[in-house]
Design goal:
The structure holds 2 protein chains of 2 kinds. Chain A is mainly α. Chain A contains 10 helices and no strands. The two termini of chain B are 46 Å apart. The chains are: A mainly alpha, B alpha+beta.
């Protein structure tokens, strides 16, 4: 196994999961609570990566990150950096592509919460954010954790977007799934088999954990 | 300087009636006002607007000298700022917190020690000793109600709002807790507004009743006023008067009116101002029955009647009679057994004149 790729993959998945925790929770909470009629538009945008081929998203991202694209221009003007074929580039791709895996379980958990509990907390003089921390999160944590685990696992297995935006640069953009592709291209089957087995076992364990959490959530 | 809660507001819904409230309640000392009415009439919406959980479309809500809501000066205090206690229909106890933590939940302004002593006080007052570490699902319905009430009153709110406080309980427990609830509320000297669709609940818990129908408060007054002297025939039916029938006053003499109802005539206290067409309201418990006519009583109305239907209703029996019009009597089970009542039997129905309430009616 290529340890550089393992380390890079874990780093990418951790950063993506952390950012989506902070961005996804408020977005999901808003989606679950709002009565705005245009909500479906936001929901559709969030869910888009579920149906879109990764190459399509990757293609558009590559254009946007190019020297004349909006993202590329912004990055070079503000930070003097370029995005394609860098870690930041694949991070942006992975963030967008994993949005539904975080936001949808979060939203489902919030939507399943009895709203009168939140109102009861407000009527007891507890402000909204403290209510969120003391009532909403403790009661929704199985759903929140499921979202985080799915996001982490899905980022570990991410292939298409990373390949389109990041290419295959060892130590920079070469994640585990890309290293498998690379090994097969070079007819190095034993190495591909080893990595594939590791990913298979990892994914299975992750799914077992999320299913178990789901069951716990139901019996509460 | 006012010491009243004054709520005058309107809340429109796309489907369903517009809620149009004009309500005043004194906030000094202890008083319980019951909002009653059929489901969907807007009583819970009114309560939620007062609590700040639902925003009215226009109007004002004033509590003493503070404006809670005003569409004119664009003020809308949050529930947190209103210093109220709200008891939800299903109690809304936090399922992940123990009894103790539920009660202490809103005491964030106190120090750790202050909080603990207040929680201990409430636990004692609401008879919850030994249950401190239980979760809400591990205690009975009656205990849940006490925890919810304790949690709300621990903060010493200036106004207490109860939404169907007993409806989550089974009927046996409900009767027992009605008395208990009134006592518990009395200990706190907080004005209470309570929503219920149950007349018995309103009678046993409240001093004052407001009857709501289709989004409007149709009548407000003491229990005695509202239940014995409903303003119109519809309200009479709403507050549970068993017999409400159209009648016609044929003669008035020395304050007593002779009223024609169906093929019978009744003597009743004449309404003022005098009218001709009326609704005749007779409560079931004001009708008594006997096997033969009785010359020695002072009861003015003695009507020969035939029993059409007998229906047990808890401790009472509902007797539907034909005495020229359809009259319903509510009598106790022992009385019914004494009289050996059965369908088809001829009896005499007796109603005192002051027990018949006449409401003027349009032609």
């Amino acid at each position: 196994m290529e340890w550089g790729a393992v380390w890079l993959t874990i780093r990418l998945a951790t950063v993506v999961t952390t950012i989506l925790f902070f961005v996804g929770l408020p977005l999901a909470y808003w989606l679950a609570m709002t009565r705005w009629r245009g909500r479906f538009l936001v929901e559709a945008v969030v869910a888009l990566p579920l149906v879109l081929p990764p190459t399509v998203l990757g293609f558009y991202l590559l254009l946007a990150m190019g020297p004349h694209g909006p993202l590329g221009l912004m990055a070079s003007r503000l930070f003097g950096m370029r995005l394609p074929f860098t870690f930041t580039g694949i991070l942006i791709g992975a963030l967008l592509f994993n949005l539904p895996f975080a936001v949808r379980p979060f939203t489902a958990a919030f939507a399943g919460l009895d709203r009168t509990l939140i109102e009861a907390s407000w009527c007891l003089g507890v402000p909204p954010f403290e209510t969120f921390r003391r009532v909403t999160v403790p009661l929704c944590w199985p759903g929140i954790l499921t979202g985080l685990i799915l996001t982490f696992a899905h980022t570990v297995g991410e292939f298409g977007v990373v390949l389109m935006v990041g290419g295959n640069i060892p130590g920079v953009t070469r994640t585990l799934s890309i290293s498998i592709y690379d090994s097969v291209q070079g007819l190095d089957y034993p190495s591909a088999r080893q990595t594939a087995t590791a990913l298979l076992v990892f994914s299975f364990i992750v799914l077992c954990v999320t299913q178990w959490l789901g069951q716990r959530g139901e019996t509460r | 300087m006012t010491t009243d809660l004054v709520a005058r507001f309107e809340k429109r819904f796309v489907r369903g009636p517009t809620i149009d409230v004009d309500f005043v309640q004194s906030t000094t000392g202890f008083s319980v006002t019951a909002l009653i009415g059929p489901s969907g009439c807007g009583k819970t919406t009114m309560l939620r607007c007062i609590a700040g959980l639902t925003k009215p479309d226009q109007g004002t809500i004033q509590f003493c000298d503070r404006t809670w809501f005003s569409s004119k000066i664009k003020t809308d205090l949050s529930p947190q700022q209103r210093d109220i206690g709200f008891l939800f229909q299903g109690y809304a106890l936090f399922p992940h917190l123990t009894v103790e933590d539920n009660i202490g939940f809103g005491l964030r302004h106190l120090t750790e020690a202050g909080r603990r002593s207040r929680v201990t006080e409430i636990i004692k007052q609401f008879d919850l000793k030994g249950l401190e570490q239980r979760l809400p699902r591990q205690i009975s319905g009656g205990q849940q109600q006490r925890v919810a009430l304790g949690r709300v009153l621990a903060r010493k709110p200036k106004l207490l709002l109860l939404d169907e406080p007993l409806s989550a309980l089974d009927s046996m427990l409900r009767e027992q807790l009605r008395v208990e609830l009134r006592q518990m509320l009395g200990e706190f000297q907080t004005p209470v507004i309570l929503v219920t669709h149950d007349r018995v609940e309103a009678i046993s818990l409240a001093d004052r009743v407001a009857v709501m129908e289709a989004g409007k408060i149709e009548q407000i007054g003491s229990i005695q006023d509202v239940f014995s002297r409903p303003k119109n025939a519809n309200l009479a039916r709403l507050v549970g008067v068993e017999t409400v029938l159209p009648g016609e006053i044929v003669e008035t003499h020395e304050g007593l009116a002779t009223v024609r109802v169906g093929s019978a005539s009744l003597l009743a206290v004449a309404p003022s101002p005098p009218t001709h067409l009326v609704h005749v309201c007779i409560k079931g418990e004001d009708v008594s029955l006997s096997r033969e006519s009785n010359d020695t009583t002072s009861v003015r109305n003695q009507l020969p009647a035939i029993i059409k239907l007998l229906m047990p209703e808890g401790p009472l029996i509902r007797v539907v009679l034909d005495c020229g019009f359809e009259l319903t009597a509510l009598i106790t089970r022992p009385a019914s057994e004494d009289l050996q009542l059965q369908v088809g039997l001829s009896v005499t129905a007796m109603i005192k004149a002051p027990a018949i309430h006449l409401i003027p009616r349009m032609a």
